[in-house]
Amino acid sequence: MSIEQQEEIKQRSYAEAMRYMSNAKETLQKARKEDNFYADKKYVRTACGTAYNGVLLAMDSYLELKGMELPKKKRRSIEFYTSNVAQLDGKLLKELNSAYDVLHLSGYYDGLQDARVIKAGFENAYDIIDHIKPNHVVEMPPAKQSILQRIYSLFF
Asked: Which residues lie below 8 Å from residue 133, measured CB to CB, with a gap of 6+?
């Protein structure tokens, strides 16, 4: 794979993973934080699931960039990711395990509402996504943004 192809994969995947994280942060704001806890479990679960999907997008790209063949099926187990990442990067493996525990298990499945723990999970997600950050980040236009929203953003 050429350097140009790698940069193209990084650009596309990084932009998409960051879009997921942006959506997750937006959803998390709807959960209304009271002290150190979120008030609405539904929004926390949705935000954590979205952030974890951003992590999986980044992991797929990371493994592809490292020359690993991804299975054809779309749904891959956490064991697939951990066993392959363990061979490549121990620090990334720890970040992945932490993001899996916090975002997927505690946040998404259990609906954990502790804002400090969720924040740590989001930080792990950003650290993982940074592994595929391109050399020069090109701003992608927001997906599915209506013409009215674009016009509004020009004036305000």
From this structure: 10, 14
> What are the extents of the domains in the chain?
3-155
Q: Which residue has the tokens 């951003």?
A: 54
Main-chain dihedrals φ then ψ at residue 11, nearest 5 degrees: -60, -50
Task: Please give the structure tokens belonging to residue 120.
Answer: 């740590």
- Could you name the CATH architecture of 3-155? Up-down Bundle (1.20)
Predicted TM-score (pTM) of the model is 0.84
pLDDT (tens digit, 9 = 90+) per residue, 105-156?
Answer: 999 999 999 999 999 999 999 999 999 998 766 555 554 455 555 554 554 4
Look-up of token digits 């505690």: 106
CA-CA distance, 62 to 9, in Å (whole number)?
A: 9
Both tokens assigned to 83: 């066993």
Phi, psi (rounded to 5 degrees) for 37: -135, 150
Residue type, 125: A
Q: How many CA atoms lie within 13 A of 43 on its CB side?
A: 16
Look up tokens 């929004």; give the residue: 43
Query: In b/e form, how buried is each residue of 55-64, taking b as 16+ CB within 10 angstroms?
Result: bbbbbbbbbb
CA-to-CA distance for 131 and 20, rounded, in angstroms?
16
